[in-house]
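Need the bound structure for oxa(dethia)-CoA, inputs here:
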Amino acid sequence: MSGTLPPTRSGAAHAAVLGLGAYRPRTVVPNSALVEAIDSSDEWIQQRSGIRSRRWAEPDETVQYMAVAAARDALAQSGVDHSEVDLVVVATVSHMLQTPALAPAVAHELGLDRPAAFDVSAACAGFCHGVATASDAVRGGSARNALVIGVERLSDITDRDDRGTAFIFADGAGAVVVGPSDSSGIGPVVWGSDGAQFDLIRQREDWRDVTMSDTPRMPHLVMQGNAVFRWASYEMAKIAQQTLERTGISVDDLDLFVPHQANMRIIDAMARAMKLPAHVRIARDVADQGNTSAASIPLALDRMVQEGDARSGDLALLIAFGAGLAYAAQVVRVP
Ligand code: UT7
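Answer from helper R.:
Posting the output first, comments after.
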């Protein structure tokens, strides 16, 4: 018996983002609503992070509700028929069930035809991991079209009394449809991780420790902010540069820079290190949206489209980084 298999069905020559959608929770929370609990000030928060306000979800704005809302927008814009979505990837760290994943429930509520559906746990880098996975699936022939959603309700897992995180984390959802294209619309991913820095951003305790404790409490996110800040500001600019090189373009070819929305000072430091030319428009959604982890990049791109800073056909460098530490970056063409 020979061990060979028949040749694999090949996929599309190229993949592209075909549609983009977003959901921003209704409730705007200004810095002034938080500062008393953390002995801070609106001025300090704005100066250190660039954040003026964020959105926190109400009880009815569940991760599933927000993911479905963003996905509906993305599907409508893409024009892709529901029956032709074969894969749903949800990037999140705030779906409160260990199992099953959020993706099958989202796919079912959207009325999709039983696609492959799973969650990606790569924290703030999750959305770009999802886009890379979807692009490979479309080009490899394992999905005709894929839906990638980044969604978070970080307000559920943020300690409102923690000075280092209470003003940063926020809620929302963004989604894209990835499908076949005549020309390349998603460049090669540069991704990786540094597990030596595993503890820099993490859930404080594991679930067993929580349930066995005499005083069970939500295991909130904890972060060594300054160490993450330095890593992101210096190391991520190098990853951005590698991404352009692997894509075969230079900063001059870019129209948009859409980094993970963690802190305005990190965004500025990366832009300086990359020597971005003045014509490259930079996403600054963090100012009014806070840090929404896996949702931050599609939300930031959506704002640029809504405000006329991004146009169809623009080339956008996406770069995401966070807990793990994990990172992923790619250049995409705006649908
Ligand atoms: O999304 C995943 C990736 N996450 C990130 O990329 C986040 C990266 N980190 C950051 O954005 C920043 O580290 C923060 C915005 C969280 C903090 O800014 P920082 O410039 O790194 O502040 P720090 O932690 O070094 O603290 C500086 C000072 C300290 O006082 P002393 O020791 O200099 O007297 C802190 O006690 O600021 C004090 N401080 C505060 N003061 C008022 C810390 N937090 C606060 C606060 N309000 N909330």
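Comments: Residues 38, 40, 44, 48-49, 124, 163-164, 167-168, 201, 225-226, 228-229, 232, 262-263, 266, 291, 293, 322 surround oxa(dethia)-CoA (CB under 6 Å). The radius of gyration is 19 Å.
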